[in-house]
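Structure request: receptor protein-tyrosine kinase, Mytilus edulis.
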Amino acid sequence: MEDFSGFLCLFTFLCVLNFLSGVEIVNVESEVTKECYGTHVGFGMSGNQDDHYESLRRRFKDCTHVEGNLEITHVDKAINSSYDISFLSSIKVVTGYVLLGLLEVQTIPLINLRLIRADSTYNIMGEEYGLVVALTSEAGNDPKRVGLRELQLPSLLEISKGKVFFAQNPHLCYIDTIDWGSIVPDNEGPVKYGELAYSENCEKKCDTECEVDGVNRCWGESRFMCQTVRSSHCHSSCPGRCYDSYILGCCHPECAIGCYGPSDSDCEMCKYFQFGDRCVPSCPANARRLGQECIMP
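Returned structure:
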């Protein structure tokens, strides 16, 4: 009897082992919200470039929500090739403006940034901007000067306030392949182009999967860089987004990027905060705020 029991245990063990050998073990990480504070120095820099880069890395590493402005400047890989700005890839929401300038990098990997709320905007000669991309390379043939080539913002769906500004980006491509009206709602002429706003000699094209209504829409050459285009054809009475083009099809003012119906519980994303299933302009006094969530004690 003992021999049979031992055989049965061994047989069971081998069966389980054989089963597990065909199972893929997937490590799933839970989504973590990390809020960090932005800056308000414009193109300024304190200390040397190494100190400045390290300050940016410490401030924004693993950050998902930037409270304030996201200013990424003075990162020059021609000076230090070890500069790595992949720490930007976790950012999803910026409540202020985004400034990208005085850079010598090929890409800006803000691949998860969905919303630039632009509560504060960047002022250039009296115009207010939610996104500014400028001075990203010197024009010329210096092989060390690679220049910014791709913005890589495939998740960006809305800049809530202000326009978009480009200037002195002689190597930048995939700017004229973006439907900016879809990103900047309720704003006629959403983009302003300064001198050398982007390269007009780009040879790379969008992936075939990026075609929208017969037009190529992309942030880069990869098929993962397709632009997600939201309809901007709303009734004139709508202050922002809409779920239908008729007069009663407007999204609630507390919604960002889109909605499924007219109420503050139909938002695809909250513009400010989420409390329960509703989008609200502020959290209740007794709630703790984390990113865009109101958490009750």
